Amino acid sequence: MKDFDISPEPIKIFLDAADSVLNSNTFLLRFEIHSDRIEDSLLRFLKSDDFMKQLTHQDTVRGWRNLYYYDEHTESYKLRHGTILKEPLRLQIEGPPSDKREYLTAMLTGDTTKGRFFSFYGKQLELKKAEAIVDDLTSFLSDRRDWELLVVQPDFLKDGVETNSKDEDLHYFEGGNANDNAVVIKCNEKGFLLLTNGID
User: Fold this and answer.
1) Could you give the strand order of the β-sheet that contains 179-187, starting from the edge strand earlier in sequence?
2) Which residues contact 123 (CB under 8 A, 6 or more apart)?
3) pTM listed for this prediction
4) 10 φ/ψ angles, rounded to the nearest 5 degrees
5) Tens digits of per-residue pLDDT, 151-170?
C-alpha cells in the first residue's frame, strides 16, 4: 500500500490540534479491514511492513524524526534500534466509554473524564471548535457515511521505560502519566489507527 496521505486539511487540522492539546506526536495510520473481527485485521496490519512504513513516513514528513537517530559517520538519519511492537502481541479492544463523537472531541477539549486527555500546557480547545474539527475529520475519512469508534488499550507498542537500554531505544508510548491513547476509526472496510503519546 502506498503511503497514506495525511496532508488533506481535515486530517492535518485534527492531528495538529491533538498534538497541541495533548502535547503529543499524533499519528493516523490506515489499514484494511478483512474480517468481522477488527482484532484480526489490526493485528495483521501491526505485524506488516506497512505499519512501520506509515509510521516512519509520518514521523519524517511531520518533521519529528523521533523514531530515528542521526549517524554522524554517514551523516544521515537511521531508524532507532529494536522492535516497536511488544511480544507477545495482544490487543484489548472495546467500544468507547461514551458517545463516539464526544470521545474524539474530548481529545481536543482536554476532558479527562473521557480518557487520558490532559492538556499539560492548557491548550485545550473550546467545545464548538473541537466538535467542528472532529466532524470534518470523520466526514472526510468516512466519505460522509456512518463510522464506528473502538478503543484499543495502549500497551501493544513499547514505551520509554521498556526500551531504556543501549541495545534498544525504539518506542512510541511514554507510559506513566502520559496521554497514551489508541483508537480505531472504522469506516466500512477501512480502518484508521489514531495514536497519541502526550507527556509533560
Assistant:
1) 27-32, 190-198, 179-187, 148-152, 93-94
2) 20, 21, 23, 110
3) 0.94
4) -60, -35
5) 999 999 998 776 655 578 89
Q: For 62, what's the count of Cα atoms within 13 Å in the CB-facing half-sphere?
A: 23
Distance CA(188)–CA(78), nearest Å, equals 36
Question: What is the end-to-end Cα distance of the chain in Å, rounded?
Answer: 35
> Is the pLDDT score of 109 beyond 70?
yes
**What cell numbers appear for 101 in the block?**
463523537
Q: Is 124 exposed, middle or buried (0-12, 13-18, 19+ CB in 10 A)?
A: buried
Count CB atoms within 10 A of the CB of residue 192.
Answer: 20
Nearest to 26 by CA among 137, 127, 102: 137
What are the grid coordinates assigned to 29, written together? Answer: 495510520
Query: What digits encode the pLDDT tens for the residues 76-98?
Result: 999 998 899 998 999 999 988 87
* Residue 12 dihedral angles phi and psi, to the nearest 5°: -60, -45
Write out the DSSP string of 97-126: SS-HHHHHHHHHHT-TTTSS---TTS-PPP
| pLDDT for residue 3 | 78
**In the predicted model, what is the mean pLDDT of residues 97-120?**
95
State how far the Cα of 129 lies from the Cα of 200, in Å rounded to an integer: 24
Q: Give the least confident one: 13-27, 46-60, 111-125, 147-161.
A: 147-161
